[in-house]
Amino acid sequence: MNKKFIFSKVFFLMLMLFCSVVKAQLTCTPATFTDVTVMNTAGGTNSTNGLRIQLSGAGNIQIYRGGSRQIFLNDISSGSANNVPGTINGIVWSIGTTQFKTGTLFGGATDSSTALTPTSSTCTNTGNDFQHSITFSRTVSSLVYGLKVTYDYTSPNNYLTITYEVAIPAGGQQVRVSQAWDTLLAGGDTGPGFVTGVAPNYTMGTQKTVSGSVVYEAFKYKSGTVWSGYYSALYGSILGGGAMCTDLGSDNTFNNTIDTSSFTDNGIGISMNFGSTAGTFSSASDVIFLCNAPATAPTFSSTSYTAPCGGSANLMSNYTGTAVGSLPSGVSLRFLDSSGSIVSTPTAVSAAGTYYAFYVDANNADCSSPSTALTVTQGSCCSATPTVNNSSTLTNVCPATSVDLTTRYTGSSSFPAGTSVEWHTASSSPSAANLVATPTAVTTSGTYYAFFRNTVGNCYSPASAGVVVSIVNCCNAGSTAPVIN
Questions:
Q1: φ and ψ at residue 113, rounded to 5 degrees
Q2: Hey, where are the domains in the chain?
């Protein structure tokens, strides 16, 4: 460890004491929860035996992988539920404007009113599966709120899952949760920040190449309440609660800050806003340390596609990247739509819009490469225009009181694929508002237009010539005079 590294860390610890942002030792030491839970006790020493995870009684964390700590600086020692291994580490739970913390993530005085003390915990181990759940409870304005943080890990995976579950009472205030720490990526203290993915499916953290392999320390959204913010930048600016050193402000929300410099002394964190509606809500995120997906986005000869009228576009047709069959084990090419949903059949996309292509590593929590945006547009929708007979006015013959517009269509009975014929009262911008609901029984005089409608892409051809309809009033009294006796 070089002198500059040591000086910067020591200076920061002194700075925290100076500006009263964080205290090095917490004053709240509960009588229980002073033990350290260790998951996969024999792991974390090489590239094949996964992670070794240390958790304080309040859920502050240290992680070992490949013989190196992944969080600055030391082991978590016993003695306090709120112990942390180094500078910045912990969870902040805010209820309204009141902040509670499990470690050193949020600044200000630490006492029984601000330290987040566990009320119960459970730890289980079945084979290679480990779980540690820690429950907290706080009363604010006479209302009781709950928070449960659960760590799940299966050895020898290179990722773990953290689930945050909150219980909000009726009439409660807004509830937010954040977690962050000072990273020590693969034994080094610097690394560029990054964020990839399509909202809400982000992967965010730091990554770098070590011995030819890309290593990660990143949060990846998994399910439930989406992130309200994220952070991967200078570890010292993570802190909340202070005007001098802060990204996590008084609203307990990170500002989507990413520092891409490879020299960044990095820290990472996420925040979630669970709202104020009464009920129980959860959010799960993976924390990943390895991803075999390529570090570059998939390549395409063209990122623009056209779906023909009644047809579809093949997103794979322009792909020029590594042959899918030659990708690393567990890695596949995946396409998402603009809402973040998986495209089940990328070879037949009929809806216009923006799509995203990723490489995804199923063996490492579906971590992904950077994405390539692809645009699908509808082609000239049904360039063929319906042909009609409009040589004369279409008029009803009494006693009939309506006319049949479909008798004026003169085109082929085999419409273009995927289309139907619709009649509208407008010659442009056909819509439900000007649709003729029953073209076989029109009772109103006016001019009507036929369109081919693509029932898949919901687009229309140009309008036909106008067919003029004139409805005459019929006298249905008959032509025979009444007989009077």
A1: -85, -20
A2: 3-290, 304-378, 394-470
7 phi-psi bin (left φ>0, alpha ψ -120 to 50, beta other): alpha
On the 0-12 / 13-18 / 19+ scale of CB atoms within 10 A, 222 is middle
Residue range 136-150: mean pLDDT, rounded: 96
Q: Which long-range contacts (CB under 8 A, 24 or more apart) does 474-483 make?
A: 474/396, 474/398, 474/399, 474/400, 474/401, 475/398, 476/398, 476/399
Asked if residues 177 and 166 have their Cβ atoms less than 8 Å apart, the reply is yes
- Alpha carbon distance 106, 23 (integer Å): 10
Which architecture, in CATH terms, is 3-290? Distorted Sandwich (2.70)
Q: Which residue has the higher pLDDT, 460 or 143?
A: 143
Amino acid at 31: A
Over pLDDT 90: what percentage of the chain? 61
Task: Give alpha helix (H) positions in 56-106.
Answer: none
360 φ, ψ (degrees, to nearest 5): -125, 135
Average pLDDT, the chain: 86
Question: What is the arithmetic mean of pLDDT over 20-36?
Answer: 44
Tell me the CA distances in angstroms from 145 to 6, 64, 177, 289, one per residue in order. 41, 33, 13, 33
Length of the chain: 485
In 3D space, the residue among 346, 376, 371 whose CA is nearest the CA of residue 358 turns out to be 371
What is Dmax (Cα atoms) for the chain? Answer: 127
Question: Left, alpha or beta for 40 (phi > 0: left; psi -120 to 50: alpha)?
Answer: left
In whole angstroms, how far apart are CA 329 and each of 95, 294, 325? 45, 12, 9
Using pLDDT thresholds of 50, 70 and 90, give the confidence band for residue 210. confident
User: pLDDT tens digits, residue range 364-390?
Assistant: 999 888 999 999 987 666 667 899 999
- 286 with 222: CB under 8 angstroms? yes
For residues 132 and 151, is the Cβ–Cβ distance under 8 A? yes
Predicted TM-score (pTM) of the model is 0.74
